[in-house]
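thought: fold this chain, then report.
action: predict
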Amino acid sequence: MQLPMFPLGSVLFPGAVLPLQVFEPRYRALVTDVAAGDGCFGVVLINRGSDIGGGDERTEVGSIADLVRNGEAEDGRILIVAVGRERIRVSDWLEDDPYPRAMVEPFPEGEVRSGIDVAIKKVVAARSKLLALAIEMGAHGQNLDLDLPDDPAAAAWSLCEAAPVGSFDRQRLIETDGAVERLELLERMMSDQTTDLVEVLRRG
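observation:
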């Protein structure tokens, strides 16, 4: 299917909330068309370049976003809130006229296999350890609290969203097939960060 696309400098996971301030004319046109249509668009990460003016390099795996709220600020910006629904894979980029568009196909999750509850507990522990250490080292704005959905698959995506990892690591997570495999990767990412911080503390 064809979707309007919003390349960004961040990854949108299924179930995550995406607030955006839209001011570039082509993306204002995108929001107008999406609001008048089925209310959905695609989001992918920009590998290189900028979402302003085009000329960027984009990843192939992203997610569908459902527009849930939009309005216009006094300065003319469009303020929107969208929610990630499911993964997609871009099969072909079309012309960026009047805004980025692509042919996409579903990238569904496989069956949630046994072991996901244990994997969730390990990721929660790894996150708590990493954030506690970061706070000890003077980091601000870290939130240790978690409110996970009861559904294990949704909880796995929520943990990805709540993880203190960068955009390219988040892209690796959304591209990983299987909730348990994704959680195992996330645990390794945060454990590696913790090891690095411990080494920094050791060196003084």
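thought: worth noting. The beta strands are 2-8, 17-22, 40-48, 57-58, 61-72, 78-93, 101-106.
final: tokens above.
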